[in-house]
Q: What sequence folds into this?
């Protein structure tokens, strides 16, 4: 539980209010569980605060996140019906992005990841959402499908008050450097080590 | 993202199905952020799977979790109205528990924590919920308000298929030992280190 009092007040010339309203870039990395789950927990809080939430899943198969996706779709519908919370969009790379015409049986994952990032960059320029989850986005960076320096520059230049959470192992050093909040999820013990398989409602 | 294949198959005499259906005891500990947030993300997934979710917050002031609480109350109402997802209960110690008559201006926090645990133990015996979040429950254990060995014994003896997630720093060794899934959230960088205060939708 974070304390309300900052450890130090920086000499950055900002008022407390300006500093408080700084948009957050968060990175959840490490080998342990909870990176995406904590990001979705943050998104839940953002939704409750009325923010427009958008999730972008950079994975080929999204089967592990169907529970979160279904729950957020319910929250998005609740917002549309009653005005409670914020709008929700959920996009996954799967076999091509939902906004793309390129989907087909022969998908170039590197190109799809680059397309995904290009779209996110466009949306950030338009300030289309308030809270972005770029789930497992570290992998296309690691594999060189998307240029990490370009990502860091675009994130640092994003206008307005847009929060971004990026998840995945092996976050590149430049991203760690640029982030305001970095949490390393370390695995201490995992049931799959004991030979258990995942189960519905727990693993996905 | 966990892989679908377990690293090793244990010689525990269980079928894959029996092992898959083993209820999970998870602990989120460490000095970093995301312990509770990841627990609420898991609860969201459990809710979507139709599980009866119950959250018990063992903190005096629950101001940091109001966003999650509000969002889960919406999900609980959505369930009651439409049958989607599972039932939700959210209890916080605050100044006494909601089920207790003892609330008053002079609250004995040690006694309140013990009452909270006694109630959870009763509910587990009755299999009243499917997914329990015992938020910041490590603190009453650490401070000796609730006996850690008794907790571990009760958790290990819980009947049926009840999942439990416990959050907080300094989880006692016996609890770590008993847990199926332990994640250590390590702080790498936090905006409050840079003199920022928390902001709505991000910190609470």
A:
């Amino acid at each position: 539980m974070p304390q309300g009092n900052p450890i130090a007040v920086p000499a950055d010339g900002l008022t407390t209010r300006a500093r408080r309203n700084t948009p957050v870039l968060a990175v959840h990395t490490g080998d342990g569980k909870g990176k995406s789950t904590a990001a979705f927990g943050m998104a839940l809080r953002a939704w409750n605060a009325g923010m427009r939430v958008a999730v972008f899943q950079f994975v080929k198969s999204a089967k592990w996140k169907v529970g979160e996706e279904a729950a957020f779709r319910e929250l998005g519908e609740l917002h549309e019906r009653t005005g409670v919370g914020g709008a929700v969009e959920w996009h996954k790379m799967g076999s091509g992005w939902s906004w793309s015409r390129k989907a087909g049986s022969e998908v170039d994952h590197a190109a799809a990841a680059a397309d995904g990032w290009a779209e996110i960059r466009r949306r950030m320029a338009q300030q289309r959402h308030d809270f972005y989850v770029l789930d497992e986005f570290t992998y296309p960076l690691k594999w060189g499908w998307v240029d990490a320096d370009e990502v860091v520059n675009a994130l640092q230049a994003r206008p307005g008050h847009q929060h971004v959470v990026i998840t995945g192992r092996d976050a590149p050093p430049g991203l760690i450097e640029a982030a305001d909040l970095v949490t390393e999820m370390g695995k201490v013990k995992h049931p799959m080590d004991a030979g258990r398989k995942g189960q519905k409602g727990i693993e996905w």
Remarks:
- The beta strands of chain B are 25-29, 53-57, 88-92, 131-135, 163-167, 181-189.
- The first helix of chain B runs from residue 16 to 20.
- Residues 22-95+106-179 of chain B form a domain with the Rossmann fold fold (CATH 3.40.50.300).
